[in-house]
Structure formats: C-alpha cells, structure tokens
User: Fold this.
Amino acid sequence: MTLMSNLQKIVILVAVLSLTSCVTVPWEETKNKGETPEAQLKIAKERVTKHPDNAAYRRDLLVLKNNIVDRWIGEAREAQERGYYDHALALYDKVLTVMPNHISAYTGKADIKRQVEHAKKLADAHVLAESSASDSAEENVHEVLLEDPNSEAAKTMASEIRVKAGIIDTKPPTLKPRNNKPISLELKNANIKVAFQALSKSTGINFILDNDIKPNTKVTLFVKDATVTNAIEMVLASNGLNKKVLSDNTAFVYPNTPKKLKDYQDLMIRSFYLTNADAKEVGNMIKTMLKTKDVFTDERLNMVVIRDTPDVIRLAEKLVLGNDIADPEVMLEMEVLEISRNRFQQLGVTYPNQITSFITDAEGAATVFTLDNIKKLSSDNYALNSGLGADFLKTIEDVSVLSNPRIRVRNREKASIHVGDKVPVFQSNVAAGGASSVVSESVNYIDIGLKLEVEPRITLDNYVNIIVGLEVNSLGPQSTSSNGTTAFEIGTRTTTTSLRLKDGETQILAGLISDEERKSANRLPGLGDLPLLGRLFSNQGDTKNKSEIVLAITPRIISNIQTPKSDKVQYWSGTRSTLSDKPNVMAAPVLTPAERARERATERARAIKEKARKRREAARRAREERDVEQGANGDNAEALPNSNVVPVDGNTTQDTVPATVNDQPLNEEPVPETNAPEEDI
Assistant:
C-alpha cells in the first residue's frame, strides 16, 4: 500500500508540473485572438492608457506592435514580389501608422515607386524596339539597369534588343565567300592591287587597301585547289600584310607592323571566375605563357580579367580550362592498436633490516644517552624496525587500446590526429623586485597519447604516396622540485615513413616495441646468497612490461584528377612573334621584299658553293686515280694544267668560285628579273 501511495503521489506531481509548465510563459498570451490586428492594438492601447504604471501592459503593447508590424511587412513584401503594388503600399501605410519611423516600410514604398517607373520604361522600350528604334530602346533599358543591375526583365529585354539589332559582342564578323569551291591562282611579279582584284573576282569579297601599302609591291604566288581562306592568308602573309574583317564580304588590308596592329586590331576583355585554381597563380601563368600585360587578378572573387586580342583570349580560355581542375581527395582509414602486457611478481620473506635502541626516564619519556644509562641497557631497550612477513603476490595486466580514425584529405595537404589527453604542468616564475621577489605560476599542457600526421599525394594511376608521422607519448613518474614545481617523465616513440599504396590497399606498420624487464631482491647477508635455501632468507620482485603499437592504413581515393580532353591539353599557339590558336597557313616566315631578295641571293650562293665543292671532290678523285696509274710512291700529284683547283693542306685554303646572283656579286642587292627561273622566285 505504501508503494502504491508513493506512486500515486509521483504521478500527481508530474501532472501538476506539466500543467504549470504549459501555462507559464514570459508574458501573458494575447487576449481577444479573434479580433483584427487593429482591434487588438486599440484594446492594448486603452489598457495602457487606463493603467500607465503597469509595466506588464506596456510590455504587452510593445510585443503586440512588433508581431503585427512583422506580419504586415512580410505580407507587403510577398505582394510586392507578385506585382500587387497597391496592396503592398496599403500594408506599408498601415505599418507607418503603427510605427511612423519604420525604415523597412519607407524602403519598401521607395522600391515600389522605382519598380513602377522601371516597368513603364521597359514598356516604352518594348514599343520602341518594335518600331525599329533600337538605340532609344537600348537607352531606356540601360537606365533601368543602372538603377537596378539585378533586374531580370531588363536583362532579358536588353538581350532581345541587341539580337534583333544584330549587335554581337563576343563573335567578330567572319568572311563568307560567294562559294566554298577551291580556287587556283598563278601570279608572277604581279602588282598587289591586281592580286587582290583577282581574289575579289573569284571569291566575291571586297578588299580595302590601307594607304601605307606600297603600290609597286609585287606578288608571286602559285596556288592550286586551295580554300578561299588559305589563299587570302597566303597573299597576306607572303607580303607582310594583315586584315580586319568589317563585314561578311568586306575586309580591310593593312601592313602587318606593330603600329598598324595597335590601330586596327580589335581587343576583347574576358573575365575568368575560377572554381579550384588560385587566381594569382593563373594570372602569372597567363602573363608568362601568352606575354600579355593587361592582366588583373581579384583574390576576393578568385577572378582573373585579361584584355587582349580574340586569339589570345581563346588561348587563355584553353589554359584556364586545363588548370581549373578540382583537387583530388582521398579517405584514409586507419587502425591504431596498442597492446600492453605487464607482469609483476613479489615472492619471499621480509626480515627486519634495522635494530634501534632507546632509553627512557622514570616517566617513560625518551632521554639522551649517557655513560651511566648505557650500563643499564637491557633487552627491553632494543627494537626492530619491522616485523617478520612474507610476500606472495603476482599481478598480470593485459591492455589493448584501439583507435579507428577516418579522415578525408585533399591532395598535398597535411592532416593530423591526436588521440589522448593534455596533461597540465605548472611552472613557477620568480621575478626579482628589489627586496622581495614575486612568484607567479603558469600552466603548460603536454600532449599525451597518439599523434598521427599524414600528407597524401594522389597520382593519375590511382596510387597514393603518403608521408606518415607517428608519435606515441606516455606519462611517466612525477617529479617535484624544491620550490614545488612539478614535472613528468615523458616516454616517446616516434617513426616517420613514406608509403606508396594503391587505392584500397592496406599496409600494416608494426615494430614500435617497448620491452622493459626489472628484477630486485632484498636478502639477508650471507644466508640469502645460499643456493636454493637462499630463497627462504630473501624477498625478490620481478617486473616485466612490454608494449607494441601497430598501425594499419588504407587509402580510398574519392576523386582523382579529371584530365581535360585532348584539344585542351595540346593545341596550336602561333609563332614566336604572333599568338594564334590556329596553325600558320604559310610554311615560310613572313618576309619583306628586301628580306626575300636577300634570302634568294643566299640560296644562290649556297648552290654555287655546293657546285664548287663537288668539282673539287671530282678533281681530287681524278688525281688519286692518276697517281695510282703512274705508280706514285705517296707523293702528291701536281695540279692538272689549266685547273682552278688548288691542293688543300694544313696551311692553304680552298679557292671558291665567286658567288653571283644574276651576274652580280653577292654583296650587291640583286634585282629580281621578270624572266627569272621559277625556282629562284
């Protein structure tokens, strides 16, 4: 009965507590829930007016105001997003009647006014765009975007207007010939204007020549079954010219000089928002590889902005795509097992090892020794320091400590694990201050336990190179100095190694063994040294402690480097002087007319030297054959009569036939002839 009554009391107490907890709130609940917010505010204000000194009523009024205003603000913003501007304005006005200085209400009304104006401007822009007044329409949209850069409607309309007007930002115009049939050209010392006239007649493309192109420039070109683009590029490259495409069927041709390139070559600005690569490193790479100077890096947004020609921009895009790759990650599953075996045995008889004597006076108190007292010593004045005892103790302790951490690490990043405790060590600091010294204490913490550091490097063949550092610290005996400072003996076992493991392969590292064995004995002199019987007169303690640490590590690659496609790994980059993502259509370098003339003269001189060398070789062979026929005994044969070949020895040089170009010495500038052989042109 007593138990049942106690249970009933507990149930009743819990029920009462639960009921009281339900009704206990920081303030009283708002009354008149069915009333409108305005009515609730009116009732709360009347209550405060009647009882101005009641803090609870004033608190309820403030809480009610905040709740109602937050509700109206939320409804107004939702109506504003849906385009119900009148309803949103009415709600904002209600908020201002309750809280006249509410910032969100003023801001909301201003936003609605601006959105209405923007909607009107966009409607006008749509009408202007339909009436082909694209410039005025684009100006209206631009004004909207200046005030609200995030307006999706304005962005969409701006794109539609530019597409309708044929304005393309990123794609420059390209030449579109009349047909794509291969063409053949045979021009021999033709005027440059005649060459472009022939190209225009066969391709339907108009060419406008820069005034700085010399009218007497000659073109020699033999092209058969070449594409229109290649034929135009050959004419341009062979005469040191370049072009700027103005429309689908018009190109402006100008000299390919640095000054003209600065005047006519279009430049683009490109922003690269990087996901994985570092903006600073990518910027330095673009400067180094593409030799561009207009490069800006924004480390806050991890962005790189460059300004250069479209060819350089395309090369930069390929460089960025090849480097903005996610870092590989690996999950390292580790098992650390510490096995400890401790054995302790204490066996033997404990004998007293000290005899003391004492003298007492008549009252039984200890007194000093005197010669008179020594004469009165008896067996009652001697005592042993301890009694006779026997020890029969053996302790066995086996401990296994297992730690199974799993860590996820990025490529070439260090990760560390510490499983153990931080032991406080107090340190006293004494500061001399004149006659007195000030002693202060500080606390340092020592890591005790297992500390593991790993640094993985993931390779493309799904192997993981891991640098592993393992350190195990154990707490030893405590020592206290004379001034009270405590210190501990720390036992440390450390290993560092480097592994190469395949994905999913497990490697076990063992051998961190600590083996300690101690023996101690307390014996009676003489008797304790007897064989066999000596155990009865001694007490011996044996201690054996052995511990070993085993580490098992298994890497599991989560993600590896995703190598880009072949066209992003290997691609054309132009020549030493020009950058382009396309191969050069001309096999020969771009030379000026004077350079071409010198090149032809050099080739002719080289051919003349080669012919002279062959004649000398033939003469030498003929001389050797004649010497053999005449039975010469090692003497050099005399030179043939009327021969222009001189014997060659260590002190003479070979005569060469003077190199000429069109019967002119090599050092003179050769003049191209109209009827020159084809191979010399």
Remarks:
- The chain has a mean pLDDT of 77.
- The first strand starts at residue 183 and ends at 191.
